[in-house]
C-alpha cells in the first residue's frame, strides 16, 4: 500500500505497532531495541499521520481494519501480533475481534470511554493540537530544552517528560501540528469510536498507564466484558503514551502478551 509508510526490523514472529492520534511511528523508538531481538517489528504511520498520505477510505475503525487486513496480506505477515497505544489500542482490539491477529496488546486504548470521558479526551487532544499549531518554533525549542518546559509541553501526555529529548519534543510538535488526519479522525471519534465488540479467540493484554491524564481507566468488569480472558495490568509511573516513560516495562508487557494463549 503506497500511502502507508512503515519501518521494519528484527527477527521472529511479526509484530505490528500502532500509534495514537496525532503521533507517529517513532513513538515506539524507545522500545524497538528491546523488541527486535524477539520479533519482526513493523512500526506503521497511520494514514494521515507521520509520513503516510491521507486515506481515501476514511478514518473510522472499520476503514482502518480493512486497511490493516490488506497491509498484512501485501507484506506476507499472516496473522501478526499487534500492539497499540490510545487510538492504536482501539484499532488493535478491533483487529483482534476481526480475527486478523494472533495476539493483542492495548496500551491505554481509546474507545472504552463514557460520553463524558470521551468529550474530555477529545477536548484535551484538540487543545494540544492548537498549541502545536500556534506556538512559535523558537518558543517551543526554548521550552523543550529545559525540564520545566518539557513538562509544560508534554506533561499531559507522558509521565516522565524529563526522559524526552529536545529533538523528540520538537519533532512530535511538528508532527501533531501538520498531520492532515487529525481533524477527520476526531470528527469520526465524536460520532463513534467506542469499542463495543468482544475479543474471544486471541490472547489480549490491556495495560493502563497509572498517570494517564487523557483517558480514565475503566473498571475491570468493563474490560472483562470486551475481553473475558484478558490480562489486565497497570503501567506504574507511566503517562498516556508510556513507551518513553518505562520502555523496559512496556516491551516486557508486549512480549509477554504475545506468548500468552487465549
From TrEMBL:
<dbReference type="Pfam" id="PF12697">
    <property type="entry name" value="Abhydrolase_6"/>
</dbReference>
<feature type="domain" description="AB hydrolase-1">
    <location>
        <begin position="15"/>
        <end position="252"/>
    </location>
</feature>
<dbReference type="InterPro" id="IPR000073">
    <property type="entry name" value="AB_hydrolase_1"/>
</dbReference>
<dbReference type="InterPro" id="IPR029058">
    <property type="entry name" value="AB_hydrolase_fold"/>
</dbReference>
<protein>
    <submittedName>
        <fullName>Hydrolase</fullName>
    </submittedName>
</protein>
<keyword id="KW-0378">Hydrolase</keyword>
<dbReference type="GO" id="GO:0016787">
    <property type="term" value="F:hydrolase activity"/>
</dbReference>
Amino acid at each position: 500500500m503506497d500511502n502507508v509508510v512503515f519501518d521494519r526490523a528484527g527477527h521472529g514472529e511479526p509484530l505490528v505497532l500502532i500509534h495514537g492520534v496525532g503521533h507517529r511511528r517513532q513513538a515506539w523508538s524507545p522500545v524497538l531495541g528491546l523488541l527486535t531481538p524477539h520479533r519482526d517489528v513493523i512500526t506503521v504511520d497511520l494514514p494521515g499521520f507521520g509520513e503516510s498520505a491521507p486515506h481515501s477510505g476514511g478514518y473510522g475503525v472499520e476503514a482502518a481494519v480493512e486497511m490493516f487486513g490488506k497491509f498484512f496480506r501485501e507484506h506476507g505477515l499472516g496473522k501478526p501480533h499487534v500492539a497499540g497505544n490510545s487510538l492504536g489500542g482501539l484499532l488493535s482490539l478491533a483487529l483482534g475481534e476481526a480475527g486478523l491477529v494472533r495476539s493483542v496488546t492495548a496500551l491505554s486504548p481509546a474507545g472504552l470511554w463514557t460520553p463524558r470521558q470521551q468529550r474530555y479526551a477529545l477536548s484535551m487532544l484538540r487543545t494540544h493540537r492548537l498549541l502545536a499549531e500556534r506556538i512559535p518554533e523558537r518558543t517551543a525549542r526554548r521550552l523543550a530544552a529545559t525540564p520545566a518546559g518539557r513538562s509544560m509541553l508534554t506533561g499531559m501526555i507522558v509521565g516522565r517528560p524529563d526522559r524526552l529529548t529536545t529533538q523528540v519534543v520538537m519533532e512530535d510538535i511538528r508532527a501533531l501540528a501538520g498531520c492532515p488526519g487529525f481533524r477527520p479522525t476526531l470528527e469520526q471519534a465524536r460520532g463513534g469510536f467506542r469499542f463495543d465488540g468482544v475479543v474471544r479467540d486471541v490472547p489480549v493484554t490491556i495495560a493502563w498507564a497509572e498517570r494517564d491524564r487523557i483517558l480514565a481507566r475503566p473498571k475491570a468488569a468493563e474490560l472483562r466484558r470486551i475481553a473475558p480472558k484478558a490480562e489486565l495490568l497497570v503501567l506504574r509511573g507511566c503517562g498516556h503514551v508510556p513507551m518513553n516513560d518505562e520502555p523496559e516495562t512496556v516491551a516486557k508487557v508486549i512480549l509477554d502478551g504475545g506468548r500468552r494463549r487465549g
